[in-house]
Structure formats: structure tokens, C-alpha cells
Design goal:
This protein has 492 residues and is of the alpha+beta class. The chain is built from 13 helices and 32 strands. A hairpin with a 5-residue loop joins strand 6 and strand 7. The protein starts with a helix and ends with a helix.
């Protein structure tokens, strides 16, 4: 009996080997014609074939390398204050430090910080979508194409709240990814992620959509697409494709206790990403509405206490004085059940709907008050946030050596124009001329400074020196930028 079982197993194994090798079991073991091992196995198992998807779309995916400029930091003498006899003992043991010549303060070089991410091309002239966290605080962004070409990229805009960024490379006739409609995505459909996990460019992984409109902690603005396509560090910013070869999301986050993939990845819906992209390109920032309330979710206990059958809606716990909600007539204890014609089931429904409303636009808001429905008109104001940036930190290390940003609202109250220096690079023209982080550059070469392009042009046109007016701690003073010969050569 045992032998029969063994023989059947041997025969079955032989058939598998024969079929896999492409031979017939009859006659002289002549080869049989098959399309491909992958296509045959996919057909037999009823699984999707991703080969065409990758062939058509792989070239639209790019690898992104970012670099943070090396800095220096001052530190005290590591053996400052140590008695001479103890220093002599260290010398006897061959400690390789020239104690007698080392200054009390010295500078330690910090290593360059490098990062890796992904992105995908959305226009033939070089527009690329990626994640905010991939390019934020980067001094240099380099895009690697699948044809081995490399381009330095410019960050056109970046929004921290949704983790979407738009970058641009100077290229033409590039392959473009087709964008889909994330509102039509269904749980259970097959998807593929393409990116550069751990720097391994154009890596493809597959899975299914696990959930839609997934809420994550501390994320108020993004209803994530959850999938089980393998996503790892380096995949960030890459596309999530449906089986039609359309981008339905930007891979952004994973859930992990180890730092690597654990079966859950989260993507920003492409419809939302396109909205953010359009605002960043058009306005240089993302405008979001606010109505000035503190809200909390409904629990079964709260719902029961308010006489409701279901714990739906957003409960207003506090109304900001003189805010849009107060002006509209909203009160503490109101339960928002509808905004702009859409139902509010939970807190995030209201938060996202209000944020998506253009400031100043009037919308209807329906609330329950003392068991009765009340409809009010409300006009959200703009949410003041540092979460959106477009050209807010512009690097000019090779010519001037500073990072600058536009004036914020508070600074605009004191001066109508200028750029704020956020960082001064070591051994730069700016450092040698005495500029410091926090200085506001008001005038350059006798002209009021309005934007970065004007600063860039003034520096490029300067010869040996350039007069500037700065404001430091409320006091204005003129300074002279003195360019080294090396810097002038770099400007040409």
C-alpha cells in the first residue's frame, strides 16, 4: 500500500517536471509549444497577468534621490580643562590627538544625509508627482529615469498635510502615466505598485485593495486606499496601478512594527493628489477652509443621551468667538449631520469637507439641535497652516549660500516685502558677509526684493560686491555681499 502511494507521487512529480520542462509524456518526449511559463500558470490559476501593465507603464516611474547639505557644528574641546599630567598619560598610550595645537572650540563635520523615494511622470515635459516627505528639506533632488538618464529636479510645491509634492525636470517627450479615477476603486480589485524599495529601481509588487477611505491617526485630510501590495522604504511617492494601467494612488505609508512591509500599505487617492497638484501649480499653496469649532465623534452613549438611534454626526464641543461658526449661528451641543449636501457620519467627514471648501464660499450646514434639524449658511475662512509650501525654502548654495522663504502673515505686518533667511551654509558668500539665519533681506542692489527670482537675478548679475538692506531683530542695516572668485566662476 505504501509503495502504491509512493509510485503515484513519483508519477505525479514526473508529470509536473515534464510539463514544466515543455515536453510531452508520449512517445519520444518531443517538445510542445507553449506561450510562456508565466502566462500558462496565470491562465491555469485564474490569476491576473501584470506583464503588459509593467511594459506599458514601467517607464513612467522614476527613482528620486535627495541630499541634505553637509553642515558643521561647533563643539567644545573634548579634553578641555583636563590637567596636563593626565594629558601626558594619554600621549604615552599613543592617543592620536594633537592636544597642544587643538583650539578650545572646533567644528565637527556632519555627514551628508541622503534619501531615496519614487515618483511618476504626469506630463511629457517633466512634471512628476511624489510624496512631500520624500523631497522635504532636500537641498538637491535628482531624478533617475529607466533609460539611465539623470536630471536635477526643482520642487514646484509641497503639501505636508496630504503628503503630496510636485517636482519638475527639464526634459521633453517623456512617457506619461495615465491617471485613473480613485472614486471608482473597489475593495478586492487587483493592484500593482511600482517603485524603488531600498533603491532597487522599477520593482513591481502586486496585491488587492484591502479597504477604502481608511483613516489613520493624525491624518485628517486623506482617505487612504489600503492594499496588501508590498511597499517598503523607497517606494514612497510611487504609483499604485489598477489592472487598466491607470494610477489610482500614490504610495505613502505602511503599518509596521519592524520598519518593513507587514501586509498593509496606504496610498493617497489620485483624485485628491490631482486637486493638491493643481493648487500648488496655480496658487503656490493649498488653501483650506476652517469654521472655528472643536468637534468630537459620537459614541453610542452620547447618541443615546441626545436621543439618537445611531452614533452618527460630529458633535460641536466648542465654538470659537467671532469665527465663521459663531457668525453662522452654530452652538455648542449642535450635532452636524450634513455639510454642503453630503452626510456627515463621523468627524473626519466634516473636517475634510470643510477643508475642501474654498475660503469665503458659502455652504449649507445641517445640524441637530434639541432633536430638531436646522439648516444654516456658513462661509469658512482660510486655515492658517505651515503644512503647505511652494518654493518656501529655495536653495542657492553655489551662488549665495542661503536657504530662504517668503514672509509669513505676522512678518508681513511689519514689512511688505522681503525674504527670510532660514539657513546660512558654511564657507559661503553669505556667511563671510555676515548674514545670519532669521535675517530678512529687504533690498538688493537698491531695489525692493519681492521674490526669489529677483534675488537670484541680482546675485547672478553681481560682480565683486552687492549692497543689500536687511532687517535683524527689528533693526534695519545695510550690508555688502562680497563674492569670492570661485563663486563668480560658478555663476557663469
Amino acid at each position: 500500500m505504501i509503495n502504491k502511494i509512493v509510485n503515484k507521487k513519483v508519477l505525479a512529480a514526473a508529470m509536473v517536471v515534464a510539463l514544466t520542462a515543455g515536453f510531452s509524456l508520449s512517445g519520444n518526449l518531443e517538445p510542445v509549444s507553449i506561450k510562456s511559463a508565466h502566462a500558462q500558470s496565470a491562465t491555469i490559476a485564474g490569476l491576473p497577468d501584470f506583464t503588459k501593465l509593467v511594459e506599458q507603464n514601467g517607464k513612467t516611474v522614476v527613482s528620486i534621490e535627495v541630499t541634505k547639505t553637509t553642515k558643521t557644528r561647533s563643539s567644545g574641546h573634548p579634553f578641555g580643562g583636563m590637567p596636563k599630567d593626565q594629558l601626558d598619560q594619554l600621549r604615552k598610550f599613543g592617543f592620536p590627538m594633537p592636544f597642544g595645537q587643538m583650539p578650545r572650540d572646533f567644528e565637527k563635520k556632519m555627514p551628508k544625509r541622503k534619501g531615496q523615494g519614487s515618483g511618476f511622470i504626469i506630463s511629457s515635459d517633466g512634471l512628476i508627482l511624489t510624496n512631500h516627505h520624500v523631497v522635504s528639506d532636500a537641498d538637491e533632488v535628482v531624478v533617475h529615469l529607466t533609460d539611465k538618464r539623470e536630471f536635477k529636479a526643482k520642487v514646484l510645491g509641497s503639501d505636508e498635510n496630504t503628503d503630496v509634492a510636485v517636482i519638475k525636470i527639464d526634459a521633453k517627450d517623456l512617457p506619461v502615466a495615465k491617471l485613473g479615477d480613485s472614486s471608482k476603486v473597489k475593495v478586492g480589485e487587483w493592484v500593482a505598485a511600482i517603485g524603488a524599495p531600498f533603491g532597487l529601481e522599477n520593482t513591481v509588487t502586486q496585491g488587492i485593495v484591502s479597504a477604502m477611505s481608511r483613516n489613520l491617526p493624525d491624518d485628517q485630510f486623506v482617505p487612504f486606499i489600503q492594499s496588501d501590495a508590498a511597499v517598503n522604504p523607497g517606494n514612497s511617492g510611487g504609483p499604485l496601478f489598477n489592472m487598466a494601467g491607470e494610477v489610482i494612488g500614490i504610495n505613502s505609508q505602511i503599518f509596521s512594527t519592524s520598519g518593513g512591509y507587514m501586509g498593509m500599505s496606504f496610498s493617497i487617492p489620485i483624485n485628491l493628489a490631482v486637486q493638491i497638484k493643481d493648487q500648488l501649480i496655480k496658487d503656490g499653496k493649498v488653501s483650506r477652509g476652517r469654521i472655528g469649532v472643536m468637534i468630537q465623534g459620537m459614541t453610542p452613549e452620547l447618541a443615546k443621551s441626545f436621543g439618537l438611534d445611531k452614533p452618527n454626526g460630529a458633535l460641536i464641543a466648542q465654538v470659537e468667538k467671532d469665527g465663521p461658526a459663531a457668525k453662522a449661528g452654530l452652538e455648542e451641543g449642535d450635532i452636524v449631520i450634513e455639510y454642503a449636501g453630503k452626510p456627515v457620519v463621523e468627524v473626519r467627514d466634516l473636517t475634510r469637507a470643510v477643508a475642501d471648501t474654498k475660503p469665503g464660499t458659502s455652504s449649507k450646514i445641517k445640524v441637530l439641535r434639541d432633536g430638531k434639524e436646522i439648516v444654516l449658511q456658513i462661509s469658512p475662512e482660510e486655515l492658517k497652516s505651515s503644512g503647505s509650501t511652494a518654493k518656501t525654502e529655495i536653495k542657492e548654495k553655489t551662488k549665495l549660500g542661503v536657504t530662504v522663504r517668503p514672509l509669513n502673515d505676522e512678518e508681513k505686518k511689519k514689512t511688505s516685502n522681503g525674504l527670510v533667511i532660514t539657513e546660512v551654509f558654511p564657507d559661503s558668500t553669505a556667511e563671510e558677509s555676515g548674514l545670519m539665519a532669521g535675517d530678512i533681506i529687504i533690498r538688493v542692489g537698491g531695489k525692493n526684493l519681492k521674490n526669489f527670482d529677483e534675488l537670484k537675478k541680482a546675485v547672478a548679475d553681481a560682480k565683486e560686491s552687492l549692497p543689500i538692506l536687511i532687517e535683524r531683530k527689528g533693526q534695519r542695516t545695510f550690508m555688502v555681499l562680497k563674492f569670492k572668485q570661485e563663486s563668480k566662476d560658478q555663476k557663469k
